[in-house]
Amino acid sequence: MKEKGSISIHTENIFPIIKKFLYSDNEIFLRELVSNAVDAVQKIKRLAALGQFNGEIGEPLVEVAVNKEAKTITISDNGLGMTADEIKKYINQVAFSGASEFVEKFKDAKDANEIIGKFGLGFYSAFMVADLVEIDTLSYQENAEPAKWVCDGSTEFEISEGSRSTRGTTITLHINADSEEFLESFKLQEILDKYGKFLPIPIQFGTKSIQEEDGKDADGKTQYKSVEVPNIINTTSPIWTKSPTDLTDNDYLDFYKQLYPFAEDPLFWIHLNVDYPFNLTGVLYFPKLKDDFDFQRNKIKLFSRQVFITDEVKDIVPEFLMLLHGVIDSPDIPLNVSRSFLQADSNVKKINNYITKKVADKLDELFKKDRKAYEDKWNDIGLFVKYGMVSEEKFYEKAKDFALVENTENVFFTLNEYKDKVSPLQTDKNGNVVYLYATDPTTQDTFIQSAKKKDYDVLLLNTPIDTHFVNQMEQKLEKTLLKRVDSGLADKLIEKDEKTESVLSEEESGKIKALFEKVITKPGYTVEVEGYHPEELPVTVSMDEFMRRMKDMAKMGGGMSFYGQMPDSYKVSINGNHKLISKILSAKEQDQEKLAQQAVDLALLAQGMLKGPELTAFVSRSVELI
């Protein structure tokens, strides 16, 4: 049997196109060929289960081998095999029409997956790395004869009698000069680990040495010897393919360690399993997060029938859950998936919504089941929840019942509980409930204590997402304002109908204002003399709440860059009722400026704004005044 012919592709430049446009992703040739081999083995198992094949299946196996001297890579399986006619049908007819249109449309393409997926070119990805490809195959069908197919990367092929004596297929790639990196065993191992770690059929790549017991020596000590065993690179039944009822917590934790060997144990996990209206399995883990949460992204791995596709799952997983770790497997997502497919496919959108709902349901369950344990985890999961509330309206509607806020006394409240707690005392003259919050309790302690003297409560909002969370709470919670505790004295932050008048006359107020304006030489400071409780600070320096918040958002890249470029502006509030102000007024003229400067520096020190030479001068002046 010998036959020559031309591959039916309507153009002779398909292989240069494959090599040129797919070159940057050339490692996927191994994924494609190994996946095809796995499919062939699964199909023979399926036929046997259906009673359509009565022969011996044997141990299912796919073998990958490399011969550096011969410059070949082989992929062998004991699956279905093919007849010569099937080779002609499945290999020789590249199934797309209008190859000229294809060339024009994809001449600038950068996404190999898009091209391969669109035109079923999985097998032909072999020509990204090979000058010559051989297929040696024997079909499972009775009386089938072995067949061999050879192609040198042109549109010409040759079919002749094959040499296989057992069912299955062997593909041999004669690696081209530009791709000899793939003749290194470590490189192939790396690719197999990446794409085939959880394939459902054992994948063998050479052998490996293990230590086995070999009796005991004269002293009774166990002896060991090195033994060569098959190097099976994959786990064929990962936990996401199993029922949650068959798994223990240790199974989930062991799998997490397999995925992320150096990570801390996760907080908890969610097992995904749905078969309608789409197919999806997987396990998502909530990791312990660091503040630099952007660094944690791209930790979810996307699979299609246990074949790794990508860890860039932005369109499948909601943005705020990109911080999760784990795996998602869906046969509804093609193996060769492109970004444009993910963005347009309706199943992907359904999967996105489903995952959002599952995460919300799990968090709600944890909250209701054991609130204390939930609170203990809040510092880790709070970032997820707040991020989700800010970015996903549907998630906000669910999360508002289990989202927590924490005050500076480390007590947790739901949003409704907190409103009930502070409304009686912290409602201003306009009927707004005012939430006071601290971002750094250590440096803001003076202002926190000032608020507590009035029995006001102060929230702790100090995570990277809280700048945005503060804005959202103001938008969502009816007649509610949030003000940072150091953006003014408590009397001003929550204004009541009653007002404390200044004991200073108009002339004295003018004199004090002029004095302080004289000692404050930096630009951007405005001075006001007002009446506060005598026990409040004599001088405070604060930034307007709105302006400071916009600047914080600008630092986080929140689309507020305009505010980030504006010069800082501060308000200096002089408490006309404090005894120090009266002391300054009655001091000798030569001492007034020194005392005023000291009072301003104390206010700056309370805000962490006194540094460098100004701090040194303040310390020297303090020693002098003492």
Which radius of gyration do the C-alpha atoms yield? 35 Å
Q: Which second-level CATH architecture of the largest domain applies?
A: 2-Layer Sandwich
Please bin the fraction of helical residues. 25-40%
The chain-level mean pLDDT equals 84
Give the name of the CATH superfamily of the largest domain: Histidine kinase-like ATPase, C-terminal domain
> Main sheet, how many strands, which sense, barrel?
9 strands, mixed
The level-1 CATH class of the largest domain: Alpha Beta
- Uncertain ranges: 9-13, 95-103, 109-120
Count of distinct structural domains = 4
Number of strands: 22
Q: Specify the overall morphology.
A: elongated
- CATH topology-level fold name of the largest domain: Heat Shock Protein 90
Approximately how much beta-strand content do the residues carry? 15-25%
List the strand order in the largest sheet.
Answer: 1-6-5-4-7-3-2-8-9
Helix/sheet category = alpha+beta
How many alpha or pi helices? 21
